[in-house]
Structure formats: structure tokens, C-alpha cells
Amino acid sequence: MSMAAAVVELAFIVVPIVLFSWLNHAGYKEPK
Amino acid sequence: MYAAHFGAGLAIKSRFWGAPTWALLLAAFLPDLIWIPLATLGIESRPGEWHDDWSHSLVMVVVWATLLALLFMRRGWAVAGAMWLAVFSHFLLDLPIHPKDLALYPHSTIHLGMGLWSIGRLRYWIVESCVLVVLMAVYVGGALKNRLPLKQAAGTCLLLVALHARFFLPF
After folding, report:
1. For residue B164, what are the contacts with CB-CB under 8 A and spacing of at least 6?
2. Interface predicted TM-score (ipTM)
3. Do the chains contact at B159 and A10, CB–CB below 8 Å?
4. Are the beta carbons of B146 and A24 separated by less than 8 Å?
5. pTM, full prediction
6. Per-residue pLDDT tens digits for B7-19
């Protein structure tokens, strides 16, 4: 696998993880 | 599979809400995150030769899962167990469909899998779609139970669907 392909593959994993983390925590308040 | 691994991490998140999302998703992709540098270095796959025993074989996935779970032990058994499950979910999801059946251990002659890769890319995508729908249902049920706002749960599902559409991209 070329370095460029590896970077693309990593981006397709890491970028969604950042977005999912934000979506599941932004403004979230623990239930009382 | 691709989007289904995110789905599995999120489904586990919805049942273990105290576990950090980023860590569960990294865990759900850990075999791939190990495979990418190994393939780049030529240790695993080379052109014309698919090899992922060190990152994806059953024994190695159990080893990676256990090591990651140990790293999270200070957060409690539940979080560590969720991490272990997230890593192992990668093996379970790859078991039916993978470019090559998964080895029992590195360089083993015993391989596990259902060989569904041969059914064709579009059918593969449809099978993954069905798996993704189930995982999304588990996630939404758990997320709403933990009082995540509906719009955020819906946004998460939309992103999952968008990622699943990566199949139609040329790369």
C-alpha cells in the first residue's frame, strides 16, 4: 500500500470518529 | 466492511454510555488501524498478495482486544469490557465477508469465514446495509434511552448512511 493510499484510508477512519464523537457529546447532559 | 464497524462501535456505545465514543470507534477499527501501517511497510499485504494475519486473525484480534481493554481498566470493568467487545466486533463483522478468509492465528493453515466476498460487490453492499440497519436500531434505542437529543442520534445515523455510500465513490 502506498503512503498516499494509507493516508486516505486513515482519513476515512479518523475524520468520521471525530464527527461521531462530537455528535454524541455536543451539548449532552447526563440524565439526573 | 466499513460503515458497519462504526455502527458496531456506536451500538456498543449506546449500551455502555460511560465509555468514550472516540475510544470505542478507534477500538472497532483497531485491526484496520494496525493493518494500514503494516501494509504500508510491506509486512502485511503486498501487490497481488492479500495478507492480514497479524492484524485480523482470531488469536491476534483477541490479543489486541485484551491489550486495549487492559489500558482502559482504570475506567472500570464495564468500560474495559466495552473496549474488548468493540475490537472483537471487527472480527465478527469481517467473518462473513472479507477479501480473504480470516486466519486462526498468523500463518495458520486454518482459515475462518463464509467466503461471501464472492457474491459480488453490490450484494456485499446490500448485506452490509442490512447489518448496518440492525446496528443503527440498537444505537438509536440506547442513545435515546440515555437521553441523547433525537437530532443528534439522527445526525449520527445520517453520517453512517453517508459513509456507507462510500461504496459508490471511485476510491
Report:
1. B2, B3, B125, B128, B129, B132
2. 0.87
3. no
4. no
5. 0.91
6. 999 999 999 999 9
